[in-house]
Design a protein that fits this description.
alpha+beta
């Protein structure tokens, strides 16, 4: 898999993957225009949306409606480092959602690939290279 990142202007940093462009920006206080989420906000959103894919799949397999289901993500930061110390996902279901599926929803959300990668982080390698002239 290859993803290309470029700098289209201002504080924007965009990622291109296949036919998609993921646009990021910084808030005005960080020198940007606030025209898009920050990279870190997208990172955090990837956790909740990944869990959501698994919840959606679980419900679809059982013919359960998802219209009134939502996931609320709470991010807690360390007072000492300012880094994220805990991510809490709360799957909210309507009153008529079958109670015997509540724990199964939790187990399905725990299958999230983003969460698994955070629990077992990859190694990082960063280098520079010269762009070859065409």
């Amino acid at each position: 898999m290859e993803l290309m990142v470029d700098f289209p202007g201002g504080a924007r940093v965009d990622a291109h993957y296949g036919p998609f462009t993921i646009v990021t920006d910084q808030p005005p206080s960080g020198g940007g225009e606030g025209s898009a989420p920050t990279p870190f906000a997208l990172f955090l959103a990837s956790i909740g949306t990944c869990a959501g894919i698994y919840v959606l799949g679980f419900c679809r397999q059982r013919g359960l409606p998802v219209d009134d289901i939502r996931i609320i993500q709470h991010v807690h930061r360390s007072g000492q480092t300012g880094l994220v110390s805990q991510v809490e996902l709360e799957i909210q279901v309507p009153p008529n959602f079958p109670a015997h599926y509540h724990e199964s929803l939790v187990r399905s959300a725990q299958l999230c690939a983003v969460k698994k990668h955070l629990e077992h982080p990859p190694q990082f390698s960063i280098k520079t290279s010269i762009i070859e002239e065409v």
